[in-house]
Amino acid sequence: MSLPQKITDNGSDIIEAVIAKGDLSKLTPEERTQYYTQVCRSLGLNPLTKPFEYIVLNGQLRLYGNRTCADQLRKLHGISIQIVSEETKDGLLTVHVRATDRNGRQDEDIGVVNFPDTLKGDLRANTIMKAVTKAKRRVTMSISGLGFLDETEVEDIPRDNPHVTRPSDIVDVPAQDNPNRIPPGDPDIKRLPKKDARDIGTKLNLEMNAITGVEELREWAQDNRNRVALLPEDWDLIFQGRYVDHLTELLNKTAAIEAAANLDWLTELANAYAKCNSAADIFHVDSVLFEPVSPTTSLEEQLKASDIREEHLKRVAQ
């Protein structure tokens, strides 16, 4: 039996957990949400506008600030930014900026981008703007006292899982012995490189998410195990996690429906007994409701039905 995850109400407990674990992926989804909200509140940012997104770096899940974050910080602190200088040297463009907040405090930073001579036209213009934007975002984070990465820096960082930008992208990889995993593909299947696997990965996700039945999903997994085996290894593991999450969700829904059906049957039985005025009436209800259903119900449900029956037998005997 699995126990429900503890939801921590105290924000300081979440911060302590982040410091101790160092990796946001080690927190539960509820704890990550609380941490995200606490960070936004501590900075005066609106969490509903999603000022931060997620990135996996060196195997750890971290937050980085996006454009919304920088824009809100400049407005909150009255930050103005001045371009001090621009320099092109050794194939790099460096933009130096200075930020001043409403209290007169100043900070400086730079933005650097690759700037080869081969860049022409719109591409050259966009690269210049990127350098300016990077410098402005970096100095905004710095003068606001934040050590978070900015999204202009994130774009230039090579990473294994560039798709991870939201909490919903984070999945737990199921253990190899998990019976709910997708069966392994044929041993002669060779994985595709990522550039060739995107289309099949997208189709697999769309197909899987469209399935709403447990048995249908399991049959689909069996039929498509070789397609899944074509995915790069890290994509395969992530897809396995998504599949197990989807299957677990469908299993829980099925269990809830069955529980509701059992509850409805017990309620119907109790209501029928309540109308009885004698033991003979109760025996009649047994033959109509209890006996035909009992072989298909769990032992727990049968015991509950028997308890209800005993209560009403005592009632009519008085």
In short:
By secondary structure, this protein is of the alpha+beta class. It has helices at residues 11-21, 29-43, 67-77, 121-143, 151-154, 194-210, 214-223, 225-229, 233-274, 279-293, 299-317, and strands at residues 52-57, 60-65, 80-89, 92-100, 106-114, 149-150.
Tags for this model:
318 residues, alpha+beta, Double Stranded RNA Binding Domain, three-stranded mixed sheet, 6 strands, disordered N terminus
Care to describe what's here?
It is a single chain. With 318 residues, this protein is of the alpha+beta class. Among the domains are: 64 residues, Double Stranded RNA Binding Domain (2-Layer Sandwich); 84 residues, no CATH class. The chain contains eleven helices and six strands. Strands 1-2-6 form a three-stranded mixed beta sheet. A hairpin with a 2-residue loop joins strand 1 and strand 2. Helix 1 packs across helix 2, helix 6 packs parallel to helix 9 and helix 9 packs parallel to helix 11.
